[in-house]
């Protein structure tokens, strides 16, 4: 019978030992990789994208993206942000560490691919304009998942909430946020359903007084959901430039300007051209809230602007509504703190 030498026996023992370790390692590796599953999503540009089913690290490339992630209670996943995030009062109040995170760029100027890749994110949330698709392709070539959102209307804000809720495994919170939107819709239904002949006219001004919005714009939807009419919507869709004659002819009952309006409200009140307007004569000129975050820009908080407009336009219909309570509760649902706790002011 053939007998192994001692050295051969020891070698065979080592081989068996190594084989066991190798098999165990392969089992562990298989188990780990099995846990890293990919899931397909359709983003808001119609792209089919494949993302890990567990997203642990996110880059938000513009302000709205950050707002949606925060409203879903996923602030701990944010690894990098857009420029000037450290200057945003809401962000710093909610999650102070955001002020110190890498800033990757902006919707206006695009993002830095290298800075984005350095934080090794599972997901980059991109803006819907400019070079978004091209940027997404570059990131995907580096093995980084991307999603493009487009919350440019009240309906699309809902869609964004549900999409990101699913991607970030925050579906329960997403449903809570949708319920908060529904609450606002329910409250404003009393004026949204007024007959056209009883509706008031609201003129909305952007950064300049003769810059307004037409059809298919979120601000127009807010005005209509509040139960009023945007006369500029008869001109065209999108952003519109209007004339002084247009505004005088429309004779709005209220004038509402963006949070980022370049002038003071006094300038409008004292402008000789507009003294015949009902809004000027009745002192119904307002600036969109809020200094905490602008409600007239697309974000989860845009819905509360609907209630603000309705209460300003038709106070007699909302006498039994505790407006401050509703705003505080809305913020508490979205961000875990009330509007006032976050430093918001009703002045």
Which structural class is indicated by helix and strand composition? Answer: alpha/beta
Q: For this structure, what is the CATH homologous superfamily of the largest domain? A: Nitrogenase molybdenum iron protein domain
Please give the number of β-strands.
Answer: 13
Give the distance, in angstroms, between the N- and C-terminal Cα atoms.
100 Å
Number of helices: 13
- Give the CATH topology of the largest domain: Rossmann fold
Provide the helix percentage. Answer: 40-55%
Major beta sheet summary: 4 strands, parallel
Q: Can you give the mean pLDDT?
A: 91
The H-and-E topology, N to C, reads as HEEEHEHEEHEHEHHEEHEHEHHEHH
Spatial order of strands in the largest sheet = 4-3-7-8
Rg on CA atoms, Å = 27 Å
Level-1 CATH class name of the largest domain: Alpha Beta
- Number of structural units classed as domains: 2
Low-confidence stretches: 17-35
Shape: globular
What CATH architecture of the largest domain would you give? 3-Layer(aba) Sandwich
Strand content bin: 5-15%
Sum this structure up briefly.
The protein contains 13 helices and 13 strands.
Task: Note down, in words, how this protein is organized.
- The chain is built from 13 helices and 13 strands.
- The protein has helices at residues 6-35, 63-71, 89-94, 113-118, 132-141, 154-167, 171-192, 218-225, 244-250, 265-269, 278-281, 302-313, 323-335, and strands at residues 38-42, 48-52, 58-60, 78-80, 105-106, 110-111, 123-126, 145-148, 202-205, 211-213, 239-241, 254-257, 285-287.
- The termini are far apart.
